[in-house]
Amino acid sequence: MGSAAQDRDRTAKDRQLDEVRVDPLQGALTTDQGVPVDDTDNSLTAGERGPSLLQDFHLREKITRFDHERIPERVVHARGSGAHGYFQVHESLEHLTSANFLCDPTLRTPVFVRFSTVQGGRGSNDTPRDVRGFAVKLYTQEGNFDLVGNNMPVFFIQDGIKFPDVVHAVKPEIHNEIPTGASAHDTFWDFVSLQPETMHHVIWLMSDRAIPRSFRMMQGFGVHTFRLVNGAGESTFVKFHWTPKLGTHSLVWDEAQKIGGKDPDFNRRDLWDAIEAGQYPEWELGIQVIPPEQEFDFPGVDLLDATKLVPEDLVPVTPVGRLVLDRNPDNFFAETEQVAYCVNNLVPGIDVTDDPMMQARMFSYLDTQLTRLGGPNFAQLPINRPLAPVANHQQDGFGQQSVRQGTANYHPNSIGGGCPVVPGSGAFTHFPQHVEGPKLRKRPESFADHFGQATLFWNSMSDWEKKHIVAAYRFELGKVTRKEIRERVVGLLNNVDHELAGLVAQGVGVTPPAEATVNHGATSAFLSQTVLPGEGIATRMVAVLVADGVDAAAVEAVTEALTAQGAVPEILAAVDGTVTTADGGSLPVTRSMTTMASVLYDAVVVPGGAASAEALVADGFARHFIAEAYKHAKPVAATGAGRSVLDAAGLPEAAPGLVAHDGDGAPPQDFVTGLVDAIAAHRHHDRDVDAIAA
Ligand code: HDE
């Protein structure tokens, strides 16, 4: 374990995990029984070239254990990345809830968070167009509370009974297991075209929210309406929101696809590296609070309908606490793979509602984990074990870890002194909601509007966001081979917005709908990513392209200024090692350019130096690197002769996010400020990039 890890804040969960941390790199090599092994490189054979012997228990054990290393992957959200951290409430929320982690501002509640994609298998890449999971396990003093959310505030369907259908439709097709990590195929869009309730979530999926730049730069949502219950037994409806300090930022689609090949672990690596560098990602927890008497005050929105959000224009999000991730797992399998989130994991003061999606989830998570984690004792796995004491009469089953003492394994008992007792207070109590009605299978009338909020989302987008959404529909539907499915989707889109439907139709070879529908014209000020800029440029990756003869003073000034702001400049040259600077010095190269690609960086800088610029102009890889970064709307900067490389890459004289300084040596302050601001703005989509060949 490195010194940074040793120095970290020790949380209660961390200390609990210490009990099971082992360092197998010490001492003698043994079997699972602790018997020292004499040779682990050669099987026991009858004669030097003879057959292996059955009695070689070390060989058999080693192979058997290897054969059984894999467990079933999650049926959805199989690809994930996790991290430890803590949550701390700003001020007591005791007027709303009795949950003590939300009432005591001095408490730092340990958490384990797992981010994920949904469609792809465990080995799929990080950057498909997909929803991202945002699952938080809080190890509170009153038991584990899991907030198992996504990075989008709504869901595809309204009733959990449709979940197997939507997942079957989006997963790889069953005859050929194609496509991996993508929704751009016939079965998904067939389902969408026949199930109009998907329209709202699907437009989020077609937006840049579905291709986050980083797990650290995406929002999280509890999606369902929850119930908070205070000490007096009064209940309030809430919606949970996580808002990242770094802003909500995305890739562009072409970039996301290329990253899938250049670095399939892009988001996982980004999370890991930021935490190792001490740049701990942070989110604000916010709640929308809806008093019970206002439950029916939102026309077209039933609080129990997971395809709807409550517009923040109507109910603002109140910041209530902070989530910080400050420690990487020690072991991927033991922690990130074996963690089991469950919508059932509730603590006193937090309850569910009758949202039929939430109700189905209450069943599904535990059920799937019984298979995935091999039996009913998975809550005893170190990563799942609560910090709160566990005492009950559950027993036996595969993988039982505890050795229970005594004989009273039932309730009531006198032999065990009646223990464990049902406590008089402090227990989880279901909110005593009044329920009555006939048993029936019927979607509520109040769930009926499938288009209004999709229209609201579309109306609230900036011009470039709208362009990206149209392009995404065109891409996805363009991959759909059956024309009638494309036609049906365009028909549904016409109910969202006539212009949107027409633009998509033109791109996918179907006739634009003739009949103009009425757009309600309403907008929300909270849905566009342009209103979620975040703070600063910390952890932004900046490529500095150099060759022999580079202007050392310019490199030094730019890299120092960026590093001072927490950004990560990397010096890239044609080959690894060092380059000779214009003044005869030597500059270490971080990596060779060909092991990387522009898509792995947030910005590109080309420092001056005549010979360096000349070499880069002659290097097609370098020119492509710059053109591609520019096309992806990234900041591009140059000093001195570096400008000629931008020209050779086909960049215009001036453009948003293009920062240049003519002179050699350390560039002036306004260049540096211009570059930092351009990076902080993330992307410059107000450029005309159609003619750029990259
Ligand atoms: Fe899940 N979901 N889900 N889901 N879900 C699972 O549980 C399910 C839904 C979400 O990092 C599974 O342990 C049903 C909404 C996340 O381990 C499974 C329904 C939201 C994760 C399951 C939904 C989510 C899962 C698969 C419709 C956002 C990954 C493995 C009623 C609020 C958790 C597992 C992790 C995982 C069922 C809908 C989020 C099969 C039946 C809505 C983040 O139980």
Observed structural traits:
19 helices, alpha/beta, Rossmann fold, 694 residues, Catalase HpII,  Chain A, domain 1, 15% strand, 18 strands, binds CIS-heme D hydroxychlorin gamma-spirolactone 17R, 18S
Short description:
Pfam families: Catalase (PF00199), Catalase-rel (PF06628), Catalase_C (PF18011). The chain has 19 helices and 18 strands.
Explain what you see.
α18 (642-648) links the parallel β17 and β18 (658-661). The protein has 19 helices and 18 strands. α5 packs across α13, α13 runs antiparallel to α14 (498-507) and α16 (610-617) packs parallel to α18. The protein is globular. By secondary structure, the chain is α/β, with parallel strands linked by helices. Strands 1, 2, 3, 4, 5, 6, 7, 8, 9 and 10 form a ten-stranded antiparallel sheet that branches. A six-stranded parallel sheet has the order 15-12-11-16-17-18, with helices on both faces. It has a two-stranded antiparallel ribbon with strand order 13-14. Among the domains are: 57-155 and 213-380, Catalase core domain (Catalase HpII,  Chain A, domain 1, Beta Barrel), CATH 2.40.180; 536-680, 3-Layer(aba) Sandwich (Rossmann fold). Residues 1-8 have low confidence and may be disordered. Bound molecules: CIS-heme D hydroxychlorin gamma-spirolactone 17R, 18S. CIS-heme D hydroxychlorin gamma-spirolactone 17R, 18S (HDE) binds at residues 74-77, 80, 114, 116, 133, 135, 148-150, 155, 160, 163, 223, 306, 340-341, 357, 360-361, 364-365, 368-369. Residues 1-22 have a biased composition (Basic and acidic residues). It catalyses: 2 H2O2 = O2 + 2 H2O. Its cofactor is heme. Heme binds at residues 74, 114, 163, 361, 365, 372. Its EC number is 1.11.1.6.
